[in-house]
Amino acid sequence: MKKILLTAVLAASASFAMAQETQNSEVLTNRNGVAILPTAGTWAIGVDATPFLNFAGRVIGNVAANSPIFGQDFGIHGRYFLTDNTVIRFGTNLGFSSLREVDFVPEAGRPADSDAEVRNIMRETSSTIMFTAGLERRIGGQSRLQGFYGAELGFGFMTRDNTRWIWGNDFSADYNWGTNSSRNLRSSNGLDFSIGAGVFVGVEYFIAPRISLGGQIGWGFNWMIEGRGSLETETWTGTAVETTTVDNSWRDSFFGVGHSAHSGITLTFHF
């Protein structure tokens, strides 16, 4: 469905760009005389509708309907109309994921006839926050179907695969894997920073007064500096437990050019 939408966005936007913008002296209204399109001085707020549409599709298709919220990236965008056709836009993209694995293992020192167990737990988390700002130009005149194009800048922060291990059996003289045996406690990849810029083009259809569904595609570049991570371990020395934290010996950077992260379906309210 997304491929079909993006193809439609490109085709419709290209036809808008090739045609001259037409201005109608009459304001587009619904049957009750309520203006449908936003005008100068209007604010707008919108969200990425794709996760909710995917969730609805799974429900309709009788597929296991997992939550549309947890483990998803959610984009929130805002607009301010300087004129009927010139818009300042800004947005943020928030993402969070969490993985928890539990292994049940025999409790150390349990009697031979006991089935007592403890849990080894591994938790892995990642998070993203991205901010964008840009300028948008709208075309389409007094029509429910509006085209738009523009450019924007963005920057953000990300943590990747930060992991914590909680062991059910503590190291001791009765429970160890030999002198100098060790196991992980925490693993961190540090804080990543990214900055980018790009251009975009899309369409928006007003399904009701000041309420629209739209889609866009973008192209741009992104530069990211990865943080220097660390690893915390504990070691059985033969008589005691020793905890050590070591910083990673590397730090990476990344540069890429391609589609931007804004491609998708949005639901926007204007007021």
Roughly what percent helix? Answer: 10-25%
H/E series: HEHEEEEEEEEEEE
Distance between the termini: 30 Å
Largest sheet: 8 strands, antiparallel, barrel
Summarize the structure.
With 271 residues, the chain is mainly β. Helices cover 10% and strands 55% of the residues. The protein has one domain.
Topology:
Elements lengths: L1 H17 L24 E6 L1 H11 L12 E9 L4 E21 L10 E23 L5 E22 L14 E8 L2 E18 L2 E15 L4 E7 L4 E7 L5 E7 L4 E7 L1
Antiparallel strand pairs: 1-2, 1-12, 2-3, 3-4, 4-5, 5-6, 5-7, 6-9, 7-8, 8-11, 8-12, 9-10
Q: What would you note in describing this structure?
A:
- This protein has 271 residues and is mainly beta.
- The protein has one domain (2-270).
- The chain is 10% helix and 55% strand.
- The protein has helices at residues 2-18, 50-60; strands at 43-48, 73-81, 86-106, 117-139, 145-166, 181-188, 191-208, 211-225, 230-236, 241-247, 253-259, 264-270.
- It has an eight-stranded antiparallel barrel with strand order 1-2-3-4-5-7-8-12.
- Strand 4 and strand 5 form a beta hairpin.
- The chain is elongated, with a radius of gyration of 26 Å.
- Residues 1-25 and 64-73 have low confidence and may be disordered.
Can you give keywords for this protein?
single chain, mainly beta, eight-stranded antiparallel barrel, 2 helices, disordered N terminus
